[in-house]
Amino acid sequence: MVIIDSPPHAETEAKIAVRSADLVVVPLQPSPMDLWATKATLDLAAGEKTAALLVLNRVPQRANLTEAMIAKLGDLDAKVAKSRLGNRVALAAALVEGLGVTEYQPGGSAATEIKALAAEVLKAAG
Question: Which DSSP category does 8 fall into?
C-alpha cells in the first residue's frame, strides 16, 4: 500500500496520484469550509473514475455541528467512512515524538480510531 498526501491545490500532482490510486481517502473536518473544499477533490476523483472515501477528522466529542455536517455530506454523493478520528491530543503528541499514535499510546482512543480507520480503508481499497 502506498499513501500519497497531496494538497488539493497541487492539481497536476494530485491528478497523477488519483489516476494511479485504487482509492482516494479524503480527510475533512466537520466544518462548512472543509465541506466546500472537498468538492474539488471529489470531482477530481470522479473525473479519473477513482473511488473516494470521505473521512471525518478532528471531530469534537460533543458538537451538534458534526451531525449537521454529516447530513450535508450526503449532498456530495460520496461514500463516508464509518470510522471517525476525534480531536485527540495524542495524535499531535505522537508526532512530536516521531511515532505513530499506535506506538505512542497503543491502548488509547486515538489508536483505536486509527486501527478502525485502517481496517475500513483496506476493505474499501480491496
Answer: T
